[in-house]
Amino acid sequence: MFTKLRNKINSMYLVQNYRKILVYVRPYWFRALVAVLITIPIGSMDAVIAWSLRPYMDVVMVEKNTGSSSTYLIPVLIVVFSCVQSLLNYTATYLNTWVGQRISMDVKMKLFGKLMTYNAAFFDKQNSGDILFRFNADVDLACGGLLSNLKLFTTRVFSSLSLIGVLFYNSWQLAIVAVVVLLGALFPLTRVRRKILSIMDKTIFSGAAVMTHYNETYSGNRIITSYNLYDYQQKRFQDTLRSVFKLGMKMVQRTGMLSPLMHFIVSLGTASVIWLGSYLIVTHQITAGSFVSFIAALIMLYNPIKSIGNNFNSVQMSLMAMERVFGLLEANPAIMSKENAKKLGDIKKGIEYKDVCFEYVPGKPVLKNVNLKINVGETVAFVGNSGGGKTTMVNILPRFYDIKSGSLMIDGIDVRDIELASLRDKIAIVFQDNFLFSGTIRENILLGREDATQEQLDNAIKAACLEEFIGTLEKGVDTQIGERGVLLSGGQKQRIAIARAFIKDAPIVILDEATSALDNKSEAVVQQAIENLMKDRTVFIIAHRLSTVRNADKIIVVNYGEIVESGTHEELLKQENSIYGSLYRTQLK
Asked: I want to staple 479 with a disulfide (CB 3.0 to 4.6 A). Which of 126, 184, 475, 502 is the partner?
């Protein structure tokens, strides 16, 4: 009972998914329709070839009449029909591939747009292999398999119907035997799907793990080299490949007998037809030509059935990929603008944290009832123990994450009520490890504002202390920097990131450990660039080096998710048993 119910649900989802994909087929409906319609003559021509053998055998082989027009006409027709069938098959394959690729492009574009809207928590839980597999490989598998499976299905349907027609035309007795055997051969397919679903899911994830190994080896090649991690990486990769191998063998164990079983059932059907056909010929109930035509049609009907087990797994993988793709397309990002969200204009008052609580993992609070007011134009520095919540304090401002309770307000408006794009337009961020895109220095700076003028670009370069460095380059700002800025030093990357933030001209600036990874010389140059960036803006600084925050208007000490001290550098040093004072004096030593 439960098996039947599950099969009905699976069938329902299959129909729903095909309906959903029709939205993407619609722009290319004409080519898709032609590709499907072409399969009708492709399948039907198998029956024409089988049917033509009856008069040929009766006239030439039995009556020995070589003077009949059938002697010459039928072989020619068989060749002509085969050529036409081949051309139609090529046309259908070309059209299917064209439509499938265009649909794949459209779905990938939509999924890529969806991927960019996911919040930081989503990427915290996913590895790169999963992302590549779910947002790229699954689309190819689903869209590529969609029309090819449809072509295969429609071709087989029309071929089978026309061939069954030929079978009944030649002998209804033999046809009944053949159809019963055909149904018996297809029956095992209904039992296999539920056995392989769990293995297919595991196979997909193990394939994603393989991709992750390649990505980690690419991104971490210097760590692997410097720490001699060749054996370590090799072993991890080998373990993953062994897992993939075991899953592949499990798949063979559960489905490998499908094709041999079908071969056996089909051979029984063929043997039964030959035995019964011999009797019908001897008793003059059918002619030899009818029997040969019947056997030809039977072989054409049975041959695809023998190999259907080999195609069944790929069909199921395609259908499951389609389910996963639509699951992603229909999922809404956890963080998005409300329906009636407000646009954020000029910030006039400031920012307020009111009883803010936050947790990454349920039941493990990171921020506990935080209260803080920052006026427009103030520079606020967050210091404290590692993991105490400093970075979280600023990550919730542009809504990388949403708070659990309380309110985080800009000019009295909760950030959750502000239009997301409008909110993030008002915030520029310089991270400790800034991501640079492959391309030129110009392209990376202009990401802050794509419509910036040359004068604005020059001002940003000057403010970020990049003039001298760019002047040494043959192509200047049009110099290629490599993937992730691999051709640049840490200080050069930071200054490009600062120029990008500068050209954005946002009223709020977040500096997240912006100089912690630099040497003293690079830090001095970057610090000057940062001071230029901070002018006339509301600035949040996260820093371990307390020497960089001495001039902040407010220094907030955050320990274990709570604000434990607040004040200027001088005020905090004067406090008795001050945590900040203790940290500062320790760093001075």
From this structure: 475
- pLDDT > 60? residue 128: yes
Q: What type of residue sits at position 292?
A: V
pLDDT in tens, 439-480: 888 998 898 888 888 988 888 888 888 888 888 888 888 988
498 vs 434: CA distance, rounded Å: 10
Answer yes or no: are the C-beta atoms of 469 and 552 closer than 8 Å: no
Residue 335: which pLDDT band, with cuts at 50, 70 and 90? confident
**Number of C-alpha atoms within 13 angstroms, CB side, residue 265?**
23
Distance of alpha carbon 469 from alpha carbon 492, whole angstroms: 8
Taking CA atoms, 190 is separated from 4, 184, 201, 309, in Å, by: 10, 11, 19, 12
* 3-state DSSP assignment of residue 367: strand
The DSSP secondary-structure symbol of 118 reads: S
- The number of angstroms, rounded, from the C-alpha of 366 to the middle of its chain's C-alpha atoms is 31
By the 8 A CB rule, do 434 and 494 touch? yes
* 30 contacts: CB under 8 Å, gap ≥ 6: none
Q: 3-state SS of 206-230?
A: HHHHHHHHHHHHHHCHHHHHHCCCH
| 548 Cβ contact partners less than 8 Å away, ≥ 6 residues apart | 515, 527, 541
**DSSP assignment of 523-575:** HHHHHHHHHHHHTTSEEEEE-S-GGGSTT-SEEEEEETTEEEEEE-HHHHHHS
User: What does DSSP say about strands 405-410 and 413-414: parallel, antiparallel, or unpaired?
Assistant: antiparallel
Residues 6 or more apart whose Cβ sits within 8 Å of residue 319: 14, 17, 145
What SS3 class is residue 333? coil
- Give the residue among 66, 86, 293, 63 at the shortest CA–CA distance from 169: 293
Count of C-beta atoms within a 10 Å radius of residue 238: 11
Q: 0.85 exceeded by the pTM?
A: no
The Cβ of residue 76 has, within 10 Å, a number of other Cβ atoms equal to 9
Has residue 163 got a pLDDT over 70? yes
The answer to whether 552 and 383 have CB atoms below 8 angstroms apart is: no
**Mean pLDDT throughout 167-183?**
80
DSSP string for 165-218: HHHHHH-HHHHHHHHHHHHHHHTTHHHHHHHHHHHHHHHHHHHHHHHHHHHHHH
CA-CA-CA-CA torsion for 217, 220, 222, 227, nearest 10 degrees? -90
Alpha-carbon distance 511 to 543, whole Å? 8
Mean pLDDT computed over every residue of the chain: 79
What letter would DSSP give residue 440?
A: B
Q: Running DSSP on this structure, what letter comes out for residue 487?
A: T
- What angle (nearest 5°) sits at the alpha carbon of residue 107, between those of residues 102 and 109? 95
311-333 residue pLDDT tens: 666 667 777 777 788 888 888 88
